[in-house]
């Protein structure tokens, strides 16, 4: 008969087996932790600016798809009012990141977008609200949906112009970029008093680094997202302009 192994050998064997089991369990736990960290990282990667870009890309894609199937008196395609107003509502955070200097734009923009959100509960497309105001002779009337759409379009274009100036050179201060963008897009339609107040407020704008911090972006990611916003928003802006022009409505207001 073989004698049983020494108790010390059995203990050592059991310890080795337990260690192997612990290693397996530990490895599974580490993999799960890494997977969770990856998921969390992907979630954190979504910033206000990247969310805006994604929404405008979907809007532009939808517009292009409808344009291929339809035509609207030279404007091309259709754009749903609910999708448009929902996307535009995301942009208000960009105005708030710019501080006091753009508070005028933020308050006006938010109010106009809110009106379009409410209008989307009754009207399907951008064309519908413009045609309604054309029929009623209220396109330029204060508070009309068409006038509010025009102001929202200017807000989108102001951000586009600001991003273009921001990207033009690393030495360009945010104040210089914002001043140039405002002069191009909004100043021609504002009174002297409003223009004076806006230009004075430009000195309160955050620095480039502060803006990136406010947006939760790095220099690299901000530039990438700004370029993507410019590319995605421009077709939407141009589409809105064509809606007015195709109905013989000038854009000098």
TrEMBL record:
GO CC, alphabetical: cytosol; membrane
Bias (Low complexity) ranges: 15-26
Domain Glycolipid transfer protein: 80-216
Xref: Pfam families: GLTP (PF08718)
Sequence segments annotated as region (Disordered): 1-26
Keywords assigned by UniProt, alphabetized: Lipid transport, Transport
Molecular-function GO term, any one: ceramide 1-phosphate transfer activity
UniProt superkingdom: Eukaryota
Transmembrane segments: none
Matches recorded under InterPro entries: GLTP_sf, Glycolipid_transfer_prot_dom
Similarity annotation: Belongs to the GLTP family.
Name assigned to this protein: GLYCOLIPID TRANSFER PROTEIN-RELATED
Organism per entry: Salix purpurea
